[in-house]
Design brief:
Blueprint (H helix, E strand, L loop, with lengths): L14 H17 L3 E2 L5 E3 H8 L4 H6 L2 E3 L5 E4 L4 H10 L2 H4 L3 E10 L11 E10 L4 H17 L5 E7 L6 H13 L7 H9 L10 H6 L12 H17 L4 E2 L11 E9 L7 E7 L3 H4 L7 E7 H10 L9 E7 L2 H16 L4 E3 L6 H10 L2 E7 L1 H6 L2 E5 L5 E4 L4 H10 L1
Parallel strand pairs: 1-5, 7-8, 12-13, 12-14
Antiparallel strand pairs: 2-4, 3-4, 5-6, 6-11, 7-9, 9-10, 10-11, 14-15, 15-16
The protein binds one RNA strand through helix 3, strand 6, strand 10, strand 11 and helix 12.
Length: 418
RNA sequence: GUGGGUGUAGCUCAGUUGGCAGAGCGCUAGGUUGUGGUCCUGGAUGUCGAGGGUUCGAGCCCCUUCACUCACCCCA
């Protein structure tokens, strides 16, 4: 038996980095006023097809979709935004507070061919803000991302930023793009030809070199922004500059989900091969209404947790394994019984204590204490019990002191609480 | 979905023209009747990814399949 393709175990020896990221992210979100939300892993398929877009790769070929016993079409969530928007509408959160900020962490599912930094079950750290149209929140989200990555010690990242316009300016851009392409259709790949009808914007994102060549001088959304979008993007840029956040304006950044409007961004790394996006986000001012809520601006980002961890591993940012405070060596039945109660009492007081009940030799137990990286070893055999002098050995200095049985546990607690 | 590479001990990997399944690390026991890391000696551990075929004989050759991996694609 083994895990199914693209799914994997994250083992205890690798968990430290995950916890470090979780802790830093939670601390940061808390400081910026984000509240944690937990959403289901399974939703009605319709939720994703309507929000992400019928013509996107995610919906067309990557979702885990199946019929349950009653025949309802269900899908394992391929991303978090749709569910959070659904929850926001379902619980009429707009009615209790005009501004809501959420974050969540958890698994997402997409049936792609696995690759470095790409799994079928992968984890995202996600943040969403509802009810703020101001460009300051766009800058702030990008700032939060760069701040988190800075705290985690990441280097070699770059922020790519673009504006995709809004329903007011997009039609004129789309016309310009289609006019531009009209005479060059024979040089575009099949995928792009398909996109002309379904979602022309996506053509800009094509990675095929021949298409890239053709699109070298293609019109950009940036050149067709309406005044509102123009001002909005200008504020985003100047705010980031003032904050000292490095970014690149990337007019070919389109993003693969249809709901994005105005600001879109990606944080890219050079250390993961083809999987360059470590985080991505954007504004989606039409999505809440599209899914049946009131007109509400929205914006959010997702971090690829697995990728983040892999980058950190490559940069050697793993925290040190925690050492054991005390290892108990008890020789003989009587000492073992006493030792059991001592170790539990120490554990209750938060002291990392372990003992081995397998009846091994002194030497084997010392070796184990060493392997567990124990700071101290307590040695209790028949002799020590008779003489009422339990030995405490400092494994680094090799110094040994004797402690009486009656005050042993409080004495040890005193030592370790220092 | 398409293409390339790789699957041998827990891990990293050797394995010659087809001829007894190997090393290092790790694990374990001992050297030291009760004191770790270094050192020395011994021991255990294999569905050679799986299934089939060729052959007196297959880790090695052939077919099928699965997994991993990298790239395309897409995205986080």
């Amino acid at each position: 038996m083994q895990t199914i393709r693209g799914f994997r175990d994250i083992l205890p020896e690798n968990i430290a980095l995950w916890q470090k990221v979780e802790k830093e992210a939670t601390r940061l979100f808390d400081a910026f006023g984000f509240k944690e939300i937990r959403i289901p892993v399974l939703e009605k398929t319709q939720l994703f097809s309507r929000s992400i877009g019928e013509a996107t790769d995610i919906v067309e070929k990557e979702m885990y979709t199946f019929a349950d016993r009653k025949g309802d079409k269900l899908t394992l969530r391929p991303e978090a935004t749709a569910s959070i928007v659904r929850s926001y509408i379902q619980h009429k959160m707009y009615a209790t507070d005009p501004i809501r900020k959420f974050f969540m962490m958890g698994p997402m599912f997409r049936r792609e061919r696995p690759q470095k930094g790409r799994y079928r079950q992968f984890y995202q750290i996600d943040a969403e803000v509802f009810g703020v149209e101001s460009a300051y929140i766009d800058s702030q989200l990008i700032f939060i991302l760069t701040e988190l990555f800075k705290r985690l010690g990441l280097t070699g990242l770059s922020a790519h930023v673009n504006s995709l316009g809004c329903p007011d300016c997009r039609p004129s851009f789309q016309r310009a793009l289609l006019d531009f392409i009209a005479s060059k259709k024979d040089r575009l790949c099949d995928n792009c030809l398909r996109r002309i009808d379904k979602n022309p914007l996506r053509i800009l994102d094509c990675k095929v070199t021949s298409c890239k060549d053709v699109l070298q001088d293609a019109p950009a959304t940036l050149d067709h922004l309406c005044n509102h979008c123009e001002d909005h993007f200008a504020t985003v840029k100047t705010t980031l500059e003032t904050q000292g956040v490095d970014f690149i304006v990337d007019k070919s950044l389109v993003r693969g989900l249809d709901y994005y409007t105005r600001t879109a961004w990606e944080i890219q790394t050079t250390t993961l091969g083809a999987q360059s996006a470590v985080a991505g986000g954007g504004r989606y001012d039409g999505l809440v209404k599209e899914l049946g809520g009131p007109q509400t601006p929205g914006i959010g980002f997702a971090i690829g947790f697995d990728r983040l961890v892999e980058v950190m591993e490559q940069l050697d940012k793993a925290p040190q394994a925690t050492a054991l405070d005390l290892f108990l060596i008890c020789l003989g039945d009587m000492a073992t019984e006493k030792g059991y109660h001592w170790s539990c009492a120490l554990n209750q007081n938060g002291i990392r204590t372990e003992m081995d009940f397998r009846g091994k030799s002194m030497k084997a137990l010392m070796k184990r204490a060493n392997k567990l990286n124990a700071h101290y070893v307590l040695i209790a055999g028949e002799d020590e019990l008779i003489q009422n002098a339990i030995i405490l050995r400092d494994m680094n200095t090799k110094e040994q002191v004797s402690l009486p049985v009656e005050t042993l546990v409080p004495e040890l607690i005193k030592i370790f609480k220092k």
